[in-house]
Specification:
three-stranded mixed sheet, 4 helices, 3 strands, about 65% helix, about 10% strand, rod-shaped
Length: about 220
């Protein structure tokens, strides 16, 4: 009888200890998993915050570049138009008035664009998509803005199609830089811009009648 009671007691203790160990181990594993999950969530939050900060920095750099392009372009155009107005003031008052009106329009456009861009730079909570980007859709307006300073034409060749945003922005910026250089350096009186849609490519041509560089350059 005594051996049986001893075996029963030992067995009961073993089962009790095994059950306690099992439940304790399960609780420890769950606690560790919760801690690992919490740590992973914290790391993901840090990563999301870092990505958000990088996105804001990238967008602000883009806006700063756009602001530089806007100012350089409009100021260059206004300078040429002011010079033309000064030369025509006594000889052709009507033409001088037209040049002054173009200066007024260019100045107003420059101020509006700067307010738009600086407003976003001042507002750190502004989403990155808040600033519309210029693309090929605005090329006609860009070229038309030079008409007080130069004779201009803008032609679209081929069937227009939707372009990738990066390509559209690049085409606009290339045109803007080319026109700015024409106004500031070429001494031109006319500039022609052509955007050609080919089967698999897009071709941009900006041609002016200004002085050419020497062969050595």
């Amino acid at each position: 009888m005594l051996p049986a009671f001893a075996l029963y007691t030992i067995g009961t203790n073993i089962l009790f200890l095994a059950g306690a160990w099992t439940f304790g181990n399960a609780a420890w594993v769950q606690t560790r998993q919760r801690m690992e999950l919490a740590e992973r969530n914290r790391e993901l939050q840090v990563e999301r915050d870092e990505n958000a900060r990088n996105a804001v920095i990238t967008e602000r750099l883009r806006i700063a570049r756009e602001l530089h392009d806007v100012v350089a372009h409009h100021v260059s155009v206004m300078g040429v138009q002011a010079g033309a107005a000064r030369l025509m003031l006594t000889r052709d008052p009507a033409a001088a008035e037209g040049a002054l009106m173009s200066i007024e329009l260019a100045g107003r456009n420059a101020v509006e664009e700067m307010h738009r861009l600086l407003g976003v730079l001042r507002d750190g909570a502004q989403p990155a998509q808040a600033v519309p980007v210029a693309g090929v859709e605005q090329l006609d307006t860009l070229v038309a803005g030079l008409r007080g300073a130069l004779r201009t034409t803008y032609t679209v060749d081929g069937e227009p199609r939707e372009l990738a945003q990066s390509l559209s922005i690049s085409l606009y910026r290339i045109t803007q830089e080319a026109l700015t250089n024409t106004v500031r350096q070429a001494g031109a009186s006319r500039v022609d811009v052509t955007l050609s849609y080919r089967a698999t490519t897009v071709e941009l041509t900006v041609v002016d009648d200004g002085r050419a560089c020497s062969p050595a350059r």
